[in-house]
Design brief:
By secondary structure, the chain is mostly beta strands. The protein contains one helix and two strands, in the order αββ.
Length: 112
């Protein structure tokens, strides 16, 4: 059984509108941030404070051991995420306690 030529993994046209090409274009776009950080918010950073040990690496002197100053991330209260994710569903009807499943080992007959 031969496959049609459209299924032989031929390259797509430049202006192809199929789902694969559309997804590839969307994934190439930079991600939009949910909120723009304010002046109070800052990312984490680490900068070397002083060099403790130097060594020759490939004929060039480079720091081998340094003391670092680390600034932790700070996010203001406005941009802090909540502890729990939002509730996506709610109880429509609460019928009380669930009835437990009791397996029946002996056959029975309905009376009535």
């Amino acid at each position: 059984m031969s496959k049609p030529t459209s299924y032989q993994r031929l390259p797509h046209a430049q202006d192809c509108d199929c789902s694969v090409c559309w997804s590839r274009r969307e994934m190439a776009k930079p991600a939009r941030s949910q909120s723009i950080p304010c002046a109070q918010c800052r990312p984490a950073s680490a900068v070397p404070k002083r060099t403790l040990q130097m060594g020759r690496v490939g004929g060039i002197w480079k720091p081998l051991l340094s003391e670092w100053k680390v600034e932790p991330t700070f996010i203001c209260e406005k941009h802090t995420r909540p502890d729990r994710p939002p509730k996506y569903w709610s109880v429509v009807l609460d019928t009380g306690r669930p009835t437990p499943y009791v397996p029946i080992h002996e056959p029975f007959e309905l009376v009535g």
